[in-house]
Design goal:
Elements: E1 2-9, H1 12-24, E2 32-37, H2 46-54, E3 76-78, E4 82-87, H3 89-96, H4 103-108, H5 114-125, E5 129-136, H6 140-149, E6 153-158
Antiparallel strand pairs: 1-5, 1-6, 2-4, 2-5, 3-4
Helix pairs in contact: 1-6
Length: 170
């Protein structure tokens, strides 16, 4: 039976390191999703931000930090979030949503409760990276540990048949 693990990251570097670890250990194969608002995707040091502002052409908005491990959708408008960049199965889920439905409804399809889905939507709205991973039951603890190891917070494990976390990872 598959489980979903969710986590919030503050920086693209933390997110990248966690995804690399999970990919390197074959803990989730192609079921890793990342979501961030486009205005926050190029967070970095002051020098990097300043250099980006000096470019005559704006940098392409993408999740290139993930070395083509994640299939990315083009930037899209999501209700209550604005323009986001999403990669992985969650991107497809967001694109298939009926007009007016957004991240909360997509997260409900993974088994998250409405309360926690709204919490994750708020985190993305305020500039954090959402990582959502679907994996086999036997690998769920290893995935949660890897997310925590690289600075993930609000890590929770979900089952589609239960509308509350199995047990938050702390």
């Amino acid at each position: 039976m598959e489980r979903t693990v969710t986590a919030i990251f503050k920086s693209p570097q933390q997110t990248k390191e966690a995804v690399e670890e999970i990919q390197g250990e074959s803990l989730a194969n192609s079921k890793i999703s990342v979501l961030v608002r486009t205005e926050y995707i190029h967070q970095g040091s002051f020098q990097e931000e300043f250099a980006a502002e000096l470019n005559l052409y704006p940098p392409e908005v993408n999740l290139d930090r993930f070395n083509s491990w994640l299939v990315q959708a083009p930037p899209m408008e999501v209700p209550n979030l604005g323009e986001v960049v999403a990669a992985g199965p969650l991107a497809n889920e967001l694109m298939k949503r009926p007009h007016g439905e957004g991240l909360v409804e997509a997260l409900l399809s993974y088994g998250l409760s409405a309360e926690r889905a709204r919490h994750y939507e708020h985190e993305v709205r305020t500039g954090h990276y959402l990582v959502l991973i679907t994996t086999e039951h036997e690998k769920v603890n290893s995935v949660a540990n890897a997310l925590q190891k690289f600075g993930g917070r609000d890590i929770e494990k979900w089952n589609k048949e239960i509308d509350h976390p199995l047990h938050p990872a702390h």
